[in-house]
Structure formats: C-alpha cells, structure tokens
Amino acid sequence: MRFDFTDLNLFRHIVEAGSITHGAERSNLALAAASTRIRKMELAFGTELLIRGRAGVTPTPAGRTLLQHARGILAQTERLQEDLTPFARGLAGQVRVLSNTNALTEFLPETLSSFLMAYPDISVDLEERLSDEIVGLIAEGNADIGIVAGTVDYGGLDTFPFRIAFSEVLDYDMVGLDRASAIQRFLADKANRIGRPLRLRVQLRSFDAICRLVECNVGVGIVPETTVQRTERTMAISAVRLTDPWALRELTICVRDVNSLPPYARQLVDHLRASA
User: Fold this and answer.
1) Rounded CA separation 17/56 (Å)
2) Cβ-contact 165, 225 below 8 angstroms
3) Does the N terminus or the C terminus of the chain have fewer Cβ atoms within 10 A?
4) Are 64 and 98 in contact (CB under 8 A)?
5) 218 vs 28: CA distance, rounded Å
6) Using CA of residue 84, residue 85, residue 91, residue 97, what is the dihedral sign?
7) Buried b (16+ CB within 10 A) or exposed e, 108-130
8) Pairing state between β 158-165 and 249-255
C-alpha cells in the first residue's frame, strides 16, 4: 500500500470541495493527475473511496474513515513543521501557552522572564484567551500549556495548582479593561447571568491604569489582589473583598498529557509550578 501526504491532502480537498476538479485545484494538481492518484488509492485499499455523481462526489464509508485519518495525519504533520521551525532559527524549541487575563497580566511576565533567562534556547508563544476556551484548545492539542481559572471544568486534562488571586465588583460605576480582554468578557458574562449589566465609564489597557483612574474617583475597578498590593503603596486607593463564590479564583496549569509534552514544554510546566 503506497500513498503519500500529497494523496491524503488531495483526498481531503476533494471531499471538502465535493468535487475532484475543485479538489485538484486546491491541491495545485492537474485534473488528470488528481484522478489518477484517487484511482491508485482505491486500488491500493481495495475499495471505492468516492461516490461519483452529476452533482459532484461524496465519500463512501471507507472514504469517511480515510478522511478522518487523513485529517489527523496532516494535522500532526503541520504540528511537526511548527515544532521544527524554531530549530532552523537556532532555537531548541517553542512552547505554546494560552493564559487568562489575570495570569497573563499579573504573574506570567516575571515567571516567563526568569524561565527564558534560564533557557535561552526556548521561545514561548503566549496568547490571551478565556479560561473555557483554553481548556477546549488544550484538549484539542492546539497549545501545550494553559493557565486558567480554577472554576472551569478541566475534563480529562492534567492539572497543577498555580496561583490564587482576583477581586471583582459589580455594584458601581466602573473603570475596566478593553472589551476584547478575556477578563472583561468574563465579567460581562457574570453580570449578564444575574441581570446586572456593567456600568463601564472608562476602558483601559492595563490594571495599573485602572488603579490610577480609581484614585481619581472615576469609578470602581476590578483588579487582581496582587495589583492592589503593588499599587496601594503609591496610590490613594482601598480594596474591598467580595463574598461572591467566584470572587476568589484559583489559577490552574492544564496540559493535555504532561508525559507527552516535549521536554522543553515540561521544563516550563515545572518552572511555573515552582514559581507558585
């Protein structure tokens, strides 16, 4: 049985396009060459893979099975290419990290700084997402490490404790982060669920900027406890803890399977756990 990545990619394009002609175009192949490759695959597998009709083609049961495996193989190939690319730039590896706003703003800068200094041959691709989104993306294998709120459902992920922090207020005129930030979307969702919309007067880019406007009596700010501990030394602000059950949030490290992570990604997990 002989076939290659070009065959698998062609078959995927044909099924997704519903047409051998359009699938060949997407694969940058001539129609005759594409048809020949499909026929050879069917001969190799000993079964038809496509049902051909006037309106186009659809996969047979065997074709649907092949499509599922083809997508998985091609995804792994793309992941391999991504993982090997840093080596061409002289790096030993790249770790993909997804983080919620709280961890990204308050904890990760110092932790990642010390990690990158200790491991100069490793790079980190860091992206801000909502905790629920992060869990799903980690489960699907779209990133190596996630830092999420402790209130989410982790499913079957491996998890490790990271930090505890975060104070939230919903009762007053507020100074908040940009609407696109993960933490602001989280707060808006919490407010909507209990029928209390956020009264945002100003939206800013950082927790420190929020504290500065709070000091000027513009409104109440929602910031992590660590931000208050840092800024109250130089600003005339006061912090009040909320009693809501979700007001104090654990930050948790989550990975799909810690034992299957590349060595450099496991090193970052160990570093994050040590920093906690």
Assistant:
1) 9
2) yes
3) N
4) no
5) 59
6) negative
7) beebbeebeeebeebbbebebbb
8) antiparallel
Three-state SS letters, the chain: CCCCHHHHHHHHHHHHHCCHHHHHHHCCCCHHHHHHHHHHHHHHHCCCCEEEECCEEEECHHHHHHHHHHHHHHHHHHHHHHHHHHHHCCCCEEEEEEECHHHHHHCHHHHHHHHHHHCCCEEEEEEECCHHHHHHHHHCCCCCEEEEECCCCCCCCEEEEEEEECCCCCCCEEEEECCCCHHHHHHHHHHHHCCCCCEEEEEECCHHHHHHHHHCCCCEECCCHHHHHHHCCCCCCCCCCCCCCCCCEEEEEEECCHHHCCHHHHHHHHHHHHHC
Q: What are phi and psi of 186, to 5 degrees?
A: -60, -45
Positive or negative: CA dihedral 149, 152, 153, 155: negative
Q: How far apart are CA 147 and CA 161, in angstroms?
A: 10
Confidence band for 232, pLDDT divided at 50, 70 and 90: confident
Tokens 């939206």 belong to: 203
- Distance in angstroms (rounded) separating the CA atoms of residues 11 and 209: 53
How many CA atoms are closer than 13 Å to the CA of 27, on its beta-carbon side? 28
Residue 122 CA to residue 267 CA, distance in Å, equals 10
Write the pLDDT tens digit of every residue in 183-208. Answer: 777 778 777 777 777 778 888 888 88
pTM (two decimals): 0.44
Query: Using CA atoms, how far apart are residues 174 and 33, in angstroms rounded to an integer?
Result: 63
- The Cα 126–Cα 130 span in angstroms is 13
Distance of CA 110 to the CA centre of its chain: 21
Mean pLDDT comparison of 34-43, 85-94, 142-151, 242-251, highest-scoring range: 34-43
